[in-house]
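call fold target=OBG-type G domain-containing protein
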Amino acid sequence: MFIDFTQVELFAGKGGAGAVSFRKEKYIPKGGPDGGDGGRGGHVLFKVDTGLHTLHDIRYRKKYQAENGHHGGGSNKTGRNGTDILIPIPPGTLIRRKNEENLLADLTKDGQSFIACHGGQGGKGNARYKTATQRAPRTAQKGTPGESGFFDIELKILADVGLVGFPNSGKSTLLSKLSAAKPKIAEYPFTTLEPQLGIVKYGEYNSFVMADIPGLIKGASDGKGLGLQFLKHIERNKIHIYIIDVQEKFPADILEALKKELAQFNQNLLRKPYLICRSKMDLDIDLSDGWKSFSHEFTDISAINGQGLSELVQKIVKLIELQN
């Protein structure tokens, strides 16, 4: 199951208390204060793991509690810091306080981390309170509480290329042929109910990430069909590929409708570079007058017999390189 939103409650650890202690050595009846400081409470932090592609693992664990700092000890021993809790997340994760718009972190790179809740500070031991007039202080400081709160965790997948098209236009078949992804494929609308990611390799060592965004319909930006649920994932793509079925009678209208849905969701989506593909060219059909008058540049492809796929990959690579 593809999970791209969840809420969690986080508790950082409390700082350990400082110690009240005095030196106890033979022949030194009045040893001075030697109480050590308490340790810091554990942090709660998120860290990007590129092996993850969904928030599935944290959806079912709603609460995270870091360890408290340990108390200070005699002989000026500082308490051990509480163990941090590290929550692995996929690249493209956004973190906000619950029901707040302010973005705390946008984590996109492998290994990138963010401390959502800081552990409390350890308290001072009585050794720190010794003065010229107070030789034997019996005062020590408690540790401070750790930070806590509810957080909204949202994922916007990172892909170089986003496949955009109405249901049953051939996006899933194309993704499966160009990559090792295995999306569900069938001849009925809304077969793809969640985004699918695939890695397309080219050359000897190079690759790019392609995403099949669940099929749009007219009115998706108003909540129809799968609605806004997955449109947000298109925002991260460097380029779009509009997929239009060769069987469509009015391809110009289809292209306009797709662009309209993207624009109504986020006008900036139309500023991204794009390619147009005429899919299912393996079908033996007569082209409509709409295709004959279609004025946009496009690439003919067939994911069934491989027509145009190498050419398409070359065009994609050139566009991606221009963006980098």
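return ok
Residues 91 and 314 are 26 Å apart (CA to CA). The longest strand covers residues 148-155.
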